[in-house]
Design brief:
Helix content: 10-25%
CATH topology of the largest domain: Purple Acid Phosphatase, chain A, domain 2
CATH architecture of the largest domain: 4-Layer Sandwich
Order of helices and strands: HEHEHEHHHHHEEHEHEEEEEEHEEEEEEE
CATH superfamily of the largest domain: Metallo-dependent phosphatases
Shape: globular
Number of domains: 2
CATH class of the largest domain: Alpha Beta
Strand order of the largest sheet: 3-2-1-10-11-12
Radius of gyration: 25 Å
């Protein structure tokens, strides 16, 4: 027993000494860029430009490696994958930065890259006939043309379903998505990467410094919260939970870099990379862009979705120090300007990056003094294009100050008054129109639309209350529209 205690003390002392010796470093130990969901399509020059700009930004910041969490291509074709490789070589010829130093590719396949039958609707055909139709074969999909061979041709490196690389003394485990030629289809139970248990059973990792794990789907129970779609079976999380110094990266959900739930910490640390192409928001916002809205019992209906396709592109950049990792959340469209404050992840893992720890004590955003909200009746159209009478609530964005953060989104309540009774008859959440841009560019008014039919006819007046919320749902003080009486007889289009 005394021997075990002595050995445990020696191990702890070794960790302390190693960490303390590195703490004197004047330069960061390593730098890494992180992108995901690039969806490269050679026929769309904008997507190529965005990828090139992202890589040039990482070159300028002297990245030692670039992580890409899957969905490198839009349609999973060989031509798209090779176009990705061509852009990489144009920015990093010979895998060298502009200063001549090496930069490592840390890429994995995603579902768009290697599950073409899901997107073309031919999976049923394949199962019934055991082959693919000629038109699909002629299209040149990666998975139908030897994904290992095509990886080698595109990126000048050998492929393995699970790869381990070491960059600047830090280990990366790169786990490619389950494919059609492996056990575990896209919607099979469980959805998992074959061979991962065996890999972790036969590989060891430094117990002092962090190591990084990369896959496309979300390790279950981590980023995005418990109801987030796109999670894997949970077996990955169980494996990583044995390694408190593990930091996983995933993509797939296209979330913005402003999402605080994209950093999770528990038994290990998980980071969800934002999308380089097409950003999505949280569900339930009246003007949000979220694939989960269709599953809501009361989905948004009155406003068109925010369109982030032409000007929404986010990335992460990690600077690794002896005692912490700083994660910059940047907007590629605006040259790498920050869209939110950096995350600071201490290591060893002390729990300070958990949802609970980071959300505690964050102040609520506040409207500027004198800010006003207005409401007016308009002839509008709902999300489906149906014409109807709407009430437009308009207000300025709540921007940050020295003591308060930028608003993440807004809650707008319709408060009805009838005689001595006051009640809330409708509540909506809404984003500012450029919530995914750096704050200094997000200056236009925010609007929230209510269908006139959502306001009961039987009222003396209606007031709209607007509250700015931080990313954890804490609301600031409201501003209110003037009480108004809306035409009780005319609730449908036209006036």
């Amino acid at each position: 027993m005394r021997t075990e205690v002595r050995l445990r003390f020696v191990r702890i002392l070794a960790v302390v000494v190693a960490t303390a010796s590195m703490a004197w470093a004047e330069e960061p130990l390593a730098r890494f860029g992180v992108i995901s969901d690039i969806h490269l399509l050679p026929s769309d020059p904008h997507r190529s430009d965005v990828l090139r700009d992202a890589l040039k930004y990482m070159d300028a910041r002297k990245a030692d490696g670039v992580v890409a969490c899957g969905d490198l291509t839009q349609n999973g074709t060989v031509a798209e994958l090779r176009a990705f490789g061509d852009i990489w070589r144009a920015v990093f010829p010979g895998n060298k930065r502009s200063d001549g130093e090496h930069v490592e590719k840390l890429f994995v396949y995603g579902d768009h890259d290697t599950e073409p039958t899901f997107y073309t609707g031919t999976l049923k055909y394949y199962k019934e006939h055991g082959t693919y139709p000629d038109w699909l074969l002629k299209r040149g999909d990666i998975v139908l043309n030897d994904r290992a061979k095509q990886w080698k041709a595109a990126f000048d490196e050998d492929f393995a379903p699970i790869m381990r690389k070491r960059v600047k003394g830090f280990d990366f485990v790169l786990a490619h998505l389950v494919n059609l030629d492996e056990d575990g289809m896209r919607y099979a139970d469980p959805l998992h990467i074959p061979g991962l248990e065996e890999f972790f059973a036969t590989n060891t990792f430094d117990r002092v410094k962090p190591f990084f794990y990369v896959q496309h789907k979300i390790p279950r129970g981590t980023v995005g919260g418990p109801t987030q779609t796109g999670q894997d079976s949970g077996r990955t999380s169980a494996l990583l939970a044995k390694h408190p110094n593990a930091i996983s990266f995933n993509g797939h959900k296209h979330r913005t870099a402003t999402e605080e739930l994209s950093l999770w910490q528990g038994a290990f640390t998980a980071i969800q990379s934002p999308a380089l192409f097409t950003l999505l928001t949280a569900a339930g916002r009246e003007n949000g862009r979220c694939s989960c809205d269709a599953a809501l019992s009361d989905p948004p209906q009155q406003m068109a979705q925010i369109n982030t396709i032409p000007d929404g592109s986010h990335a992460l950049f990690l600077t690794v120090w002896p005692d912490r990792i700083v994660v910059d959340r940047v907007d590629v469209i605006h040259g790498g300007e920050p869209v939110a404050a950096p995350w600071v992840i201490k290591w060893p893992n002390d729990g300070s990056a958990s949802f609970e720890a980071r959300g505690k004590g964050v102040p609520a955003p506040q409207f500027a003094p004198g800010a006003k909200a207005t409401a007016r009746k308009i002839a509008g159209s709902d999300r489906s294009g149906k014409k109807l009478v709407q009430i437009e609530v308009r207000f300025p964005p709540a921007q940050s100050t020295a003591t308060t953060p930028r608003a993440y989104d807004y809650e707008v309540r319709a408060v009805l008054r009838k005689a001595l009774v006051t009640r809330i008859v409708a509540t909506k959440r809404v984003y500012s129109p450029k919530c995914y841009w750096p704050e200094k560019y997000d200056t236009g008014d925010v609007t929230c639309l209510f269908g006139r039919f959502e306001i009961p006819n039987d009222h003396d007046s209606v007031t709209f209350e607007v509250r700015p919320l931080n990313a954890w749902g804490v609301a600031g003080e409201p501003i209110m529209t003037e009480p108004a009486t809306y035409d009780k007889a005319k609730v449908l289009y036209p006036f």
